[in-house]
Amino acid sequence: MELHVYKDGDALSKAAAEWISRRIAGTLSAKPRFTIALSGGNTPKRLHRLLSQPPYRDRIDWARMHVFWGDERAVPFNDPRNNARMAFDTLLDLVPIPPGQIHIMKTDRKPEQSAAEYEQLLHEYFDGAQTSFDLVLLGLGDNAHTLSLFPGEPVVHEEKAWAKAFFLREQDMYRITLTRPIVNKAAAVLFLTEGASKAPALKEVLEGDYNPDLYPAQVIKPVGELLWFVDEAAAAELK
Which CATH code, of 3.40.50.1820, 3.40.50.1360, 3.90.920.10, 3.40.50.700, is assigned to 2-231? Predict the structure, then answer.
C-alpha cells in the first residue's frame, strides 16, 4: 500500500491526473485496451475535468479506453444523483471514447436485473484473465464506505458475485455495486480522499483494527497495487 499526501484537493487531483495518464500510457504500450472503473461522489469531478483538458486529454489514447463504474444509485440517468450522468457531464462527453466501450450500470430496469447484466459483462471481459480492471478509482465516505459497501450491509462480505443490487434503508433507495471479489482482482486501485470530514474514517481504515462491518473500505485489498491519494485535511489524524 502506498500513501501519498497532498496539500489540498487541487494538488491531489493534479497528481492523480498525472499518475493515471502515465499508467494508461504504460499499460497500452503492452496491451490493446485499458479498463477503468470510475467512482461517484464529488472528489472525482475535479479529476475528470483535468483529464478532459490538455495536457492530460492529449496523452490518453481514448479509442482504447473501456469504461465501467464501481457503483450506481438506482435513479434515472438524468437524475443529478446518477454517477454515470456525472461522469458524462464532466469527462465522457468531452473526450473521444467509442460509445460501445462505455458500460453504464443501467437504471431503466429492476436493480437485480441490472446487477446480473453487469456481472455477465464483467465475465465477458475478465474470465480467465490474471487481473480484472487495469484501474479502479474509489472514494471514501465519512462512514468509511466505498463503492456501495456500507457499514453493516451483507454485501460487504460478498465472496462470489461480482455485482450486487440491494436496498439501502438509510438512503431509501436501491444501489448497484461491484463487490470485493472483482475489485480485489484489479491491477491497481486508487483511492481519492479529501476533506477534514474524512479524517476519522481514514484513520480507522488505515490504522484501526480490522472491522469491515464498521469500516467497509478495509475489505479492498487488491492483488495489484493499492494507492491512497489524500489531502492534508483528510490525513490529519494519521500517525
Answer: 3.40.50.1360
